[in-house]
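Model the whole thing, not chain by chain.
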Amino acid sequence: MRTRFTLLRAVLWAAVTSLACNTAFAMRAHQDCRDPSVFQGADVNIVVLPYVSTGNPSPVLNELGQRLALLIKLDAFAHVLDYGSLGATQMEVTPGADVDTCIPQVVIPKLLGQVPGASILTPKGKGLIIVWGVLYEEGDDIILQSYVRFVRQDTSESIGFQVAQYQFSAQPSSQVVAFTPRALKKSLLAQVEASYRRADLVHKEPRDDSEGQPLPHPVAKCIACAGELTPGYEVIEKKGEWIHVRWMIPGSERQSDGWIHAAGSFAGESLDSVLPELHFIQGCVGYLMQRIAEARQSRLSKALAAEAIGELRQYQVASESSDKTTSAVALELSGIIQLLQNGEDEDLITAQKSFDAALTLVPYDPDAATLASLTQVRVLWRTKNSIPSPLPIADRLTNAAALSLNTKAAVENLRNYLQLLLSAPPSVEYEKMPREAIRERLEVLAKVRVPPS
Amino acid sequence: MTRAQAHGFPLVLFFSCITSSPLWGQLISCPAASGDAYKIFVDDVRSVSSTPASTSQAKRMGGLRDFIVENLRTMSKGRASVVPCVGRFPSDASVFTDDEFDSLDRLRVLLEVWGAVEDPVREQGALGFVLVPARQVSPPAVFVFRRTGGSFLSQAGQGAKLQVFTPVVLGLIDFQNLKYEDAIPNLCEGQHKLTDIINSTNPGPDPQSLPDQKKLLAELRRITSDAITKARSDPGSRYQLLKPDPDHTFSCPVAGGLQ
């Protein structure tokens, strides 16, 4: 047990580099929750908190929860290397420590700089995905439930639409999602352990039977060692489930390199087939990368966009019946990625289908309604230069304005939509919505007090 | 886990208002309660049977309680924090008197949750929920979900639906604090999610619980209409955009499904 525990505590601590293709990866394990940090140079950081073990008089942090967190981080990271500039960190504390030191309500505000306590904050505009969860052990079973929050530092997830001279905006229904509880067999822990050992070893060749040695782990000593060489690994390339890394040998200026088996598996299955939420996380990385690229007046390549959309769809297909809200968010994120491609008719129509499907799952959600309605407006305006039947969309946007937590944007959307209708030549007549009715709605809207956003 | 549980025999979570209840332990003040933030009190899990509960039965009930509490906390989007109340356990539904509700209200408690192993032999237990802001509008505002057998996974999956309590109590507390515009989105979310539970076919609503669920839903509808009416007394309210139903009440706007 002691040996195993030592192995499990071995440090996988990867750092950042810029590759020839301007790609950077970084990975870090066993980061102390009391001093959370991310990789400042990474566009998107994935941070996995230990899963909290329940069923005791009070929830506790134990070894199993930390091991699961590490495996989830490794699996997610290994599947998203193609996106480029990434960091992944597994947080943990001493087993048995106070749960409250490692809960999202404590760690996230630190990482976002809302309260002091993080040594490295998420930079403005950069993406952060936090994963956490609870688990329950009984006999051979482990039941777990995961949660994810995604955010860009100091940046709204609002997406802009322009139709004629009018600006509109919409956003995903939620940036915090709860996944449906899942069951794993405890007997699979042997495979988890094997994955762990593979992950904690660096091999000479990308094969499990090649010579390997435990990764050096100077992390505990150097977490707070300002000015010292950051211990970590430069990721040179990815080959299947293997990543090729290079690192500075601690205490010297020499480098060494080797291969890490990063994508663990449960009994021959991939971890994401057991935990479909990993598809969501992988797709969410693609979504944030697309949004960050958009801010740089760029976009993801078609291949990467398709990969992200594929992951989100896989999650949605696996979970739609049990998890409507999160499935709706997955559809919305895939629709936004599609929308932010080059805006061709095909992208728009595909995005509209995703948003309509999301709205079917959560018909009461004002953000889902806004995304679906505005995309429909954009498609109609692009193809027909008119909105032949504007009343249903007007009603949807009115209801969204009543329920949205972002009143200002929702009211602005409604106003601009009504003005867009009036901007059509006088000869254009609308079904079930005469111009006088549009003007009346605008008059009511003019009296609505809009709070600052 | 028994073979029957592993195969997912129908989970039975009975949802009922407590009108009478067995005698349980004493209710003490929550030792950790302080501060201005809204709170979710998490009480002990205890056996209330003369037959002692096994460790595994208590563990199972505690696990279920904690899964549900994490859902409730996450749904609050930072508005409520979890406070463990070690040693606190309701002796009886009658301990939740008006005075006790006032005390919880003063402590800014939104929800209180506890677990009880009621019959270890029949694998029967209960999770109790006190919806503090609901007391005024839908007394007694104490609900118990009973479980008999079933796999932990299916119970946790069903328990996740109880996240509906978070928007309900947040909407009600804002309503009581006269923040009508803030209350309405949460009240509507609570209504829609409760409707989903009632209309769910997998598993279908429990016949015994249906009347209580419908009663709560009816109250939420009435309060939402009231909140919209009151919000509209302000000429600058965005709820001026809504039109009343033929009976002059207001319903939650539904954005989807209009086409």
